[in-house]
Design a protein that fits this description.
Blueprint lengths: L8 E4 L5 H12 L3 E6 L4 H11 L6 E4 L5 H15 L2 E6 L14 H22 L3 E10 L2 H5 L5 H21 L5 E7 L2 E2 L8 H12 L8 E2 H12 L10 E4 L4
Parallel strand pairs: 1-2, 1-4, 2-3, 4-5, 5-6, 6-9, 7-8
Helix pairs in contact: 1-8, 3-4, 4-6
The chain binds NADP nicotinamide-adenine-dinucleotide phosphate.
The site of NADP nicotinamide-adenine-dinucleotide phosphate has 28 residues, from helix 1 and strand 2.
């Protein structure tokens, strides 16, 4: 089934690679106008711009490090200038690292919390004047936040906090007709798998596949689908939810 987002204006953070890229392209193909951002220049940014040109719609790929408050404010100022208003916001940009908690440096804690959580606070707050009645905010969490994962206490703490942020904002913004939900991915196979040695990628696939009911990892498109559903009017009575997209872990 195709979801129609004709004419909707959507901001997706971290759209140059991985899940964010999948959401940006799926939204654009469904008829949305999309603003997205990235941190590092490179081939991924250029190929995203080229792929967006193949779709109809008014799309903008901007450089902004969402870990920096000033960059977020600039991103929203540019979004206002280009779109005037928004119907959807997807807080997708995220970073992860694997470090024993006893050795976790304070600056790494801050980097991970700033990018995964504080960025969402600022993006949503600065989006508020732009959000139309009936608009939808989707925060990309992680299935691992509820499960807990060794070496990722900082990451799972930030992702678990997304759920509290989402529940509270669903109640605070609901009377304005703004919905707020979390999509919590399980293990989604992105381009990152292509950059690993083949043996390691195969090992990871096998390890994670046997944890899921569907006996396989998810694809970026399979994650983008539920996000598009939550942006669309099909989900207009869904708010404050965490949707696990994890193949049945
Ligand atoms: N893949 C999974 O299995 C999985 C599982 C659970 C949750 N998630 C969550 O899903 C989201 C996307 O994950 P992913 O696997 O697709 O990650 P990814 O492949 O590493 O892509 C991350 C994207 O976000 C951008 N980004 C990172 N930090 C940024 C910053 N400070 N400012 C602006 N853009 C930034 C990156 O751009 P640059 O290259 O320019 O940095 C890139 O486009 C994250 O929130 C992640 O925690 C993923």
């Amino acid at each position: 089934m195709e979801i129609a987002l004709q004419g909707k204006r959507v901001l997706v953070t971290g759209g140059s690679r991985g899940i964010g890229r999948g959401i940006v392209l799926a939204a654009a193909r469904a008829g949305a106008n999309v603003v997205t951002c990235y941190r590092q220049e490179g081939e991924a940014v250029e190929s995203l711009k080229a792929a967006l040109k193949e779709t109809s719609g008014d799309h903008h790929v901007l450089r902004a490090d969402v870990g920096e408050i000033a960059h977020v404010d600039q991103l929203l100022a540019e979004t206002k200038e280009r779109f005037g208003s928004l119907d959807g916001v997807v807080n997708n940009a995220g970073v992860i690292s694997h470090i024993p908690f006893a050795e976790l440096p304070a600056d790494e804690w801050s980097r991970v919390v700033d990018t995964n959580l504080t960025a969402a606070y600022r993006v949503i707050q600065q989006s508020l004047p732009l959000l139309n009645q009936g608009s939808s905010i989707v925060n990309i969490g992680s299935r691992g936040a509820a499960a807990g994962i060794p070496l990722r206490a900082h990451y799972t703490a930030a992702k678990a906090a997304m759920i509290g942020l989402t529940r509270s904002l669903a109640k605070e913004l609901g009377p304005r007709g703004i919905r707020v939900n979390v999509v919590a991915p399980g293990v989604i196979e992105t381009e990152a798998f292509d950059t690993m040695p083949a043996e390691r990628a195969a090992g990871l696939r096998a390890t994670y596949a046997q944890k899921t009911a569907l006996a396989r990892l998810g694809t970026v498109d399979e994650l983008a689908g539920p996000v598009l559903f939550l942006i669309s009017d099909l989900s207009r009575y869904v708010t404050g939810e965490t949707v696990n997209v994890d193949g049945g872990i």
